[in-house]
Amino acid sequence: MRSSLARVLEGYEQAAAEAEERLAAAADIGAVADIERDLLGRRSRFTAAKRQLGDLDPGERAEAGRRLNAARQRVETSVAAARTRLTAAARADRHAAERLDLTERLPQAAPLRRGSFHPVTQARDRLEDVFIGMGYTVAEGPEVESAWYNFEALNIPEWHPARGSFDTIFVNLGEPEQVMLRSHTSPVQIRVMENRKPPIYIVAPGRTFRADTADATHLPAFNQIEGLAIDRNITMGDLAGTIDEFVRAFFGTEVKSRLRPSYFPFTEPSAEFDISRPDGSWLELGGCGMVHPNVLRNCGIDPEQWQGFAFGFGIDRLAVMRHEIDDIREFVNNDVRFLSQF
Ligand code: PHE
Question: Cα of 287 to ligand 1 centre, how many Å?
Fold first, then answer.
């Protein structure tokens, strides 16, 4: 082997061995590429050595070629290993940088506060619980109603002056004044009686709507809860007892209830019921009465066989009373300072 080639070969083998260490220590992909170009590129010692191989005798050429290739392979293997290592490290760095800590907590100085249900929702839930405890089930009906359910089936025909007292908000659908936002929860009575056979014991809480201007005691969108009991031999005494029972369960024994004669087309006799305030005055809560025979007939129930009572009252008013709130509009102002008290 010519000495110049031997030198080149040795030099290359030496460089390949050093490259292995340099590659192991390389800090980035760019450094690897530099080393690679240095040792395998067009102007590298490897290319120079390869060119010289052609001048050798075939015997020597085989031996020199083998050494040169072994050294090259060594370099290639180290380059590949360094690339793999640095690519993985770069990916790990990127992941660390992009990491989002979804378990992040606010610092101790601002402890997390637990949310709570709206006071009206709380009152509604409690009412449901009280009535469920008395053997009632919970029923629901739509907020947009037809004149049949909101009025007619409830014994309020078209010409009836009671229609005027509901300040109904009509929906621009179908014939004029035939589709409306329900002005009370009483239509749910009809829906239930149409679909179930007595005995029936249901309460139906839900949103109701009237064209009222909001003030301290009125909201145009408010909540009522309807009650309906249909069975054999039900009397006005059962109604009074049920209202008394619920008032005690909801407010405690210090609150009293009373019935005052009143008028609703769908009950006969009808009454309004009040509850006592701490100062001794009475708060009007809702209406009630014995279900009118026409209403039972409208639902296919024989009034000779079945009787019942119904009541309906405002849930928002109840919550106002319970929490001694001055202005019912607080319930819809969405002020978290107000709401977080409950
Ligand atoms: N629906 C009546 C109202 O809003 C209340 C009521 C319900 C009266 C059931 C009697 C029986 O105002």
Answer: 5
| pTM (whole model) above 0.90 | no
Pairing of strands 200-209, 137-138: parallel
Q: Tell the residue nearest (CA) to atom 7 of ligand 1.
A: 312
Distance (angstroms) between ligand 1 centre and the Cα of 270 equals 9
Q: Residue 291, SS3?
A: strand
Beta bridge partners of 284: 274
Express each pLDDT in 261-310 by its tens digit. 999 999 999 999 999 988 889 988 899 999 999 999 999 999 999 999 99
Tell whether 193 and 297 lie within a shared domain: yes
Looking at the DSSP bridge assignments, the partners of residue 271 are: 261, 288
The residues near 62 (Cβ < 8 Å, ≥ 6 apart) are none
Summarize pLDDT for 143-152 with one digit per residue, the tens: 999 999 999 9
CA 37 to centroid of ligand 1, rounded, Å: 92
SS3 118: coil
Q: Quote the domain boundaries for residue 17.
A: 4-98
Same domain, 230 and 294: yes
